[in-house]
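Weekly structure sync - notes
Attendees: PM, LS, DV (DV joined late)
Agenda: review two folding runs queued last week.

Item 1: First target. Sequence and structure tokens pasted below for the record.
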Amino acid sequence: MRLKTLILALMAAVFAAGLSAPAAWADIEVNVNRGDAQPLPIAVPAFGGGQAGADIAGVIAANLQRSGLFRPLDPASFVEKDLNTAVQPRFPDWKQINAQALVNGQVTVQNGQLVVDFRLWDVFAEQQLLGLQFTSSPENWRRVAHKISDQIYERLTGEKGYFDTRVVFVAETGGRGTRTKRLAIMDQDGANPSYLTDGSYIVMTPRFSSTSQELTYMALRPEGSAIYLFNLETGRRESLGDFKGMVFAPRFSPDGGKVAFSVERGGNSDIFVMDLRSHSTARLTADPSIDTSPSFSPDGSKIVFNSDRGGNPQLYVMGADGSNPRRISFGQGRYTTPVWSPTGEFIAFTKQTGGQFHIGVMKPDGSDERILTSSYLDEGPTWAPNGRVLMFSRETSGGASKLWSVDVTGRILQPVPYPGGGSDPAWSPLLN
């Protein structure tokens, strides 16, 4: 669902109404780098405008709370009940409940369009930080709520948000021997799930392109494996071609012009890359070992992958043309499914050691390895577009695989509110 009609406009009318102009920077800031940071108390009352206003405020509060950086206050504690976007709040009423920040808004319908005004206030500085208006079709009210959440997050942390995004994943149903795996997509908060394949064949390792409009994934059919490109806007599906051997683990290059993938022949797998314009294919590794799970660096100049050429699966980095492969992981255990962060700062991975699976991160040179999660089976990390949160799948002994998220400090670990089973998540960039 592409939101072509969403309009973001600065509220010139706010200033004409005599309210304070936004500060050069907020007096209140949220430090995203401190793992022990206390969440910022923030008040998000229901927006004016009936149920639509209440629903939008509810999604905003839930987004901010799930980030772990904000603590939405209980609406029952609110003293001021008659907020109006045209006038300043009664700041003493909000100081009384220790709200550091306040979000209020108004929802109207004009000529069939949903119009949402909102304000972000620094309560103790008695200062307006943001005044914005969004216009969209009424059915896109959740996306408007995500857009507002991103604006609040960026204003108070100094970093881009990640709420107006989607996640493609493998939806799983049934027992181990009869499990059905369908390609699925949902909002990052688990809402609006829909299914892109019918479950008649197994799908694995879906990935978004940089435009968020195209997917690549592996399909495992009785006649063999194949890699597909899937256009979300048109629904058109295209095979990457016929290859001798099993093909798997496709990953887009940052510009979307190439797909790297693995081909297994006779027990050995190597990494190849296809130019999607010319459909020419180049082989990047030629080692008598298992080379797989390629992931491009954000600038497209390097690829991280895992290989057992050293005796057990470890992480390696090479040039995007396959040059100069070098090992970067040297810890105990087996390292798999590496994913370069969107900022280039870290590489996330799955690690198996001590009878447990872990999600971890390390710098691209292999230094500063940190384990973020541990369980019976944690695997397949994917990054939010701001590089602050990871999503992965967790399976308990005898249980179903579920989607979870953790922040890069490891402090904020929580299940994704999608009710069904899921694995192989892949996070989209911010939507347009």
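Item 2: Second target, run right after the first with the same settings.
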Amino acid sequence: MKKLINKPEDFVRESLAGMAVAHADLIKVEYEPTFVYRADAPVQGKVAIISGGGSGHEPMHAGFVGLGMLDAACPGEVFTSPTPDQMLAATQKVDSGAGVLYIVKNYSGDVMNFEMATELARSEGIRVLSILIDDDVAVKDSLYTQGRRGVGTTVLAEKICGAAAQQGYDLSQIADLGRRVNTNGRSMGIALTSCTVPAKGSPTFALGDRGIEIGIGIHGEPGRERIDIKSADEITEILAQSIIEDVGYSRTVREWDENQGQWVDVELSNQPFQSGDRLLAFVNSMGGTPLSELYLVYRQLVAICERQGLQIVRNLIGPYMTSLDMQGCSITLLKLDDEMIRLWDAPVKTPSWRWGI
């Protein structure tokens, strides 16, 4: 293993320390327990947005802490869920009294720990709601989830919900918006190589010289199938068509019901994309794939969407939800409405994204 590390056990802490120094005007970091938060938190009168998950997917989530996105992020160890005490401490730090929304990727550890943090925060009188992101069309269930995994749409939900909070939406409004983003977003990814987790020091799985994994998860979880390498256009066709042709998806998720004061089952459904839909197209590097290759994918994705009558009106291309040094990419398509477009375009100022300011 060749990596820029000192000790594997210090990897996350030292990375966050460097990030805090590099962006001292935007963020601060606590280490006991660990979380990243806006330097100006709490922002009075504003709903706070918190997300988190295992480290190794940077810039998500810590890189999106700042004006117009997250108020705090809770990073676990590499590919390991953060703990409820991290989430509670972050909640206490950024809550201004207007409430807190958790944006949670559908991975079992994240879901369980954010649920525990919700109950702990509510026992202290902090109003907390959560929404689940489960947008990965590759597999219905996986090694670490019941239902679809939460992947690329998480990044888009953090931006859109973060902008809504910045503009004064209340907690219930932002939660409704987050659910709408989730049910209109779909993703799928591929791996060309494995990644290497610093604590392990060797690739987490083997693909061989010509093998690729279609529909892989962001921790290297198995996808739909392993096939021999194909051209960029052929791979894009596989990913895009799997997303576009995905039929309506219904599932039951658990959410906190404020009226009943308990967890309840909520039914959510996706509707298939239709000709004329306006889309945000997100082509994401898994960490080891250069931007030049992502543009090849985007070029073909545009052609496929045009052929289907789908309009790409916004795009995002780059390494925003990575898996350490894994080579590969993912595609996310989000059906947009006027409100989502306005919120996507709203100003943002974080360590990783800055526009409109």
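Discussion on item 2: The chain has eight helices and 16 strands.
Action: LS to circulate a short write-up before next sync.
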